[in-house]
């Protein structure tokens, strides 16, 4: 298996839950679309490449939440196509403070594996998992990751719920615990892109619920999971 592991760390980050429009509630961890979007940017690839890579599932991901020191909120002003309020509106956003993630990429293509590894080490643009003001620091990039099937059934990674059965176990009662929460996220899109490379339309497809938690672990039943000796993860 071609697997890359790296750390992504931000000061203030937000990963908007799609169903929340007037109030931007955030996931606890970046979604697959966030991660593939960051890879697309640091490789200098096109929007067409992003959708093809996502829809063809050329890159599988797994995310472990290492740390979130807290949450805060801000007000975000943006332009609207109306004269009301001088063409501006304001949205309240959730923000994650000092979030650190371990991200795994499972890539079948040897050529794509090498391209992404180079881009992580020498990005063509500043890495971001969201908007331009939500930058992340990439570190501890490893490409010789040996993973094997996880026999225990316990995982500590984010996973996509496809009707799975699971139990929760608290690892350390002295730490703040975020129990599993599930929010819907798309894994692919039906998209129309013009000959000049501009997106004309987009419709979310294959939406599932992303399950995330902090300072606890999950016993996931009847699902193949993997371990690298540090974390126990599911790819999606």
Automatic annotation (TrEMBL):
Naturally occurring in which organism (per UniProt): Candidatus Infernicultor aquiphilus
Record keywords: Antiviral defense
Protein name: CRISPR-associated protein Cas5
Organism classification: Bacteria, Pseudomonadati, Atribacterota, Candidatus Phoenicimicrobiia, Candidatus Pheonicimicrobiales
Biological processes, Gene Ontology terms: defense response to virus; maintenance of CRISPR repeat elements
Transferase as UniProt keyword: no
């Amino acid at each position: 298996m071609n697997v890359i592991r790296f750390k992504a760390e931000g000061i203030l980050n937000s990963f908007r839950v799609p169903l929340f429009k007037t109030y931007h509630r955030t996931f606890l961890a970046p979604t697959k679309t966030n991660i593939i979007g960051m890879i697309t940017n640091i490789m200098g690839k096109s929007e067409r490449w992003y959708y093809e890579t996502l829809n063809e599932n050329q890159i599988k991901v797994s995310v472990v939440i290492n740390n979130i020191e807290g949450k805060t909120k801000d007000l975000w002003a943006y332009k609207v196509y109306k004269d009301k309020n001088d063409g501006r509106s304001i949205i309240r956003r959730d923000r994650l403070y000092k979030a650190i993630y371990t991200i795994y990429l499972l890539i079948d293509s040897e050529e794509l594996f090498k391209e992404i590894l180079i881009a992580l080490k020498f990005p063509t643009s500043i890495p971001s998992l969201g908007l331009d003001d939500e930058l992340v620091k990439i570190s501890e990039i490893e490409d010789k990751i040996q993973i094997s099937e996880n026999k225990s059934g316990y995982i500590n990674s984010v996973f996509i719920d496809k009707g799975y059965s699971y139990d929760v176990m608290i690892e350390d009662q002295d730490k703040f615990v975020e129990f599993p929460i599930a929010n819907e996220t798309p894994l692919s899109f039906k998209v129309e892109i013009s000959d000049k490379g501009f997106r004309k339309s987009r419709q979310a497809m294959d939406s599932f619920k992303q399950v995330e938690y902090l300072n606890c672990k999950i016993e996931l039943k009847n699902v193949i999971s993997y371990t690298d000796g540090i974390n126990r993860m599911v790819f999606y």
